[in-house]
Amino acid sequence: MTSVRTFKVPNKYLSLLTASEKKMLPHLIEAVKGVDKIYQLQENNINNGANFYPRDAIKTEIEKAAKKNPKILSPFTIVKRNSKSQLVVNEYHKEYQKLLKPISINLKRAAKICKNKSFKKYLETLANALIDGSYKKADIAWLKVKNTHLDIVIGPYERYLDKLFFKKMAYQGCVGITDIERTQRGREIRDILYTTFGDKPHRVISPSIVDIQVKVTFIISGFLGRAVFTQQHLPSDSETIETHGSKIIGYLSSIDYKFEKLIYPIFNNVFEKNFRTRYKKDSIKNGNYYVILLTGIVQQLHRYKGSRERLKELFPIFDEANTVVSGIQHAKHLVLKGVIGQKELESMMVAQLCWMFSEVINTRKLSTREVYLKGDSLVYNFLLEVGALRVHEGISWPNFAKMFFEMENLASIFTRILEEGTYKEASDFLDKYFSLEPLKTFNSKLAVIKPI
Amino acid sequence: MNHNVKKFILTEEGLDQLKAECEELIKSKRPQIVRRIKRAREFGDLSENSEYDAAKEEQSLIEARISQLEDVILHAQIAQQVKKTDFVVIGSTVIVESDGQVEEFSIVGSMEADPAMKKISNESPVGFALLGAKVGELVDVITPIIRAKYKILSIK
């Protein structure tokens, strides 16, 4: 099944492009389409290690082999067996050479048309990077692009497909146009939260060099097309991020699509009828947008040195759980400073609950979503246990004040685990609160909603 | 005569800025967008004309902003120049501590508020709660969902 998804981009965005950018578009879209074939070779929902490792290789064998050859656990290699049954590696750019070449050609064609110097340089660098594996150079050139509303990203970025080690990165692609107003609003909110939250020396990156871009997309493909992320933090390489900065990308087309097809139907199926009448659709939609924006910002505020290594495969679970509660916790400053109102905070909390249920649905289709579901279940179960949520013919009248208070408590627990917690502490918390059963009691109500 | 018209509290500097913005919109931006719309019409078929759609949308934003600014300027009330006081007033810059974080911001009228630039509206929960408080005072900011405590460390 294809990973390519296309969206209709409203005319008002097209008018932001220059004549040459409009001519570049077909080449860029073609390049992103080409990513699908590579991704399909990487994807395998049956194996925990997808197609990154031989099917018969077990974790300990791979770890042992990686001690002799660290490239075995490189984010950009495929592990195979040679004729002597030993584990060997092939780098992505060699493994997928034939499929990468037409992508590279399309990028070079677009670069020839491009009149923006920094964008042209990026397209040329990216075209070469895909062929020779110099992804860092492409990331750095991307971060330096300025004075254009058009954007394209292609490359291996997310690790979620590798459930065995959370190391290998899956290919993705995207072409979009910046939404100026929402980007500006996003940057304002980032500035408010960063100045309020203060600085922490053990953060991976100084927040001041994290940019925000909200964009509508023509096409997404690869892992991004499969997961339909609503926001993403790029690039993925920590060293590049620390030195050159990074961007939080909000995918407006995916946000709107998921709201219509997933979040709003969940709201209508999960919450009790009388409660629902208090909220208009636009109010939940607005709350949903803030949740996503804050999720992106908060993930950066809570990116701590060494947490991935310390927490290993438990990291994405706690990262997700912390993002859920810290996003709401940080919204407090927006309310106190008059940036959003009380009702918007309520809508955010309702939308956040809907996102927890969305993972129950999405895991039916994509097993890589399990880590999110686990993270969400930790939060949901905690809120149920302390009485902030009550279930009677659906979720009925959440106690928002209690829910907020308990989310603040949880945020401080998860933040500490990410900052300095041990693997055992994380594991113990998981043993105490992890269970999918409470969320799955809604299975019959959620059965009518299709996964995305 | 309507005595319930909302007054907008502004500093003199803030009012000057809004007047300048309004003048710029009326004298420069408004004619520019009219010319852009005229040009876009010449491209033909309006139903498929993205330049026309974008220009019309921008025009409506410009007109809405002009209307808002004219209303604010008409009903502006100048806040007195802030002299150093030992309690918080509109125009004060405060250093506060909350949840272990220390931050500095100014309390301004709602039209000048720009939280990203550390200018907090006097009508926001925290702005409203801090007005009148003195150095060393612990102020509770309470909304139906959120409770927060702010300790005033200094007032400038």
Automatic annotation (TrEMBL), chain A:
Keyword Metal-binding found = yes
A GO molecular function held by the record: metal ion binding
Keyword Metal-binding applies: yes
The signal peptide annotation in the UniProt record is: none
Alphabetic keyword roster? Hydrolase, Metal-binding
- What GO cellular-component annotations does this UniProt entry give? cytoplasm
By its UniProt entry, which PANTHER family does this protein fall under? DIPEPTIDYL PEPTIDASE III-RELATED, ZN-DEPENDENT HYDROLASE
What name is this protein filed under? Answer: Uncharacterized protein
Q: What organism, scientifically named, is this protein from?
A: Candidatus Curtissbacteria bacterium RIFCSPHIGHO2_02_FULL_40_16b
Q: Lineage of the source organism?
A: Bacteria, Candidatus Curtissiibacteriota
From TrEMBL, chain B:
Any idea which GO molecular function terms this record carries? DNA binding; RNA polymerase binding; translation elongation factor activity
The superkingdom of the source organism is: Bacteria
Swiss-Prot/TrEMBL GO biological process terms:
DNA-templated transcription elongation; regulation of DNA-templated transcription elongation
Which residue numbers delimit the Transcription elongation factor GreA/GreB N-terminal domain? 9-78
All copies of the Transcription elongation factor GreA/GreB C-terminal domain together span 84-156
Keyword annotations for this protein, in alphabetical order, are: DNA-binding, Elongation factor, Protein biosynthesis, Transcription, Transcription regulation
Keyword Glycosyltransferase (UniProt): no
Key word NADP present in the record? no
Describe its function.
Answer: Necessary for efficient RNA polymerase transcription elongation past template-encoded arresting sites. The arresting sites in DNA have the property of trapping a certain fraction of elongating RNA polymerases that pass through, resulting in locked ternary complexes. Cleavage of the nascent transcript by cleavage factors such as GreA or GreB allows the resumption of elongation from the new 3'terminus. GreA releases sequences of 2 to 3 nucleotides.
Quote the HAMAP family the UniProt record gives. GreA_GreB
Q: Which family does it belong to?
A: Belongs to the GreA/GreB family.
Q: What protein name is recorded for this chain?
A: Transcription elongation factor GreA
Query: Where does this protein come from, organism-wise?
Result: Candidatus Curtissbacteria bacterium RIFCSPHIGHO2_02_FULL_40_16b
Q: What is the lineage of its organism?
A: Bacteria, Candidatus Curtissiibacteriota
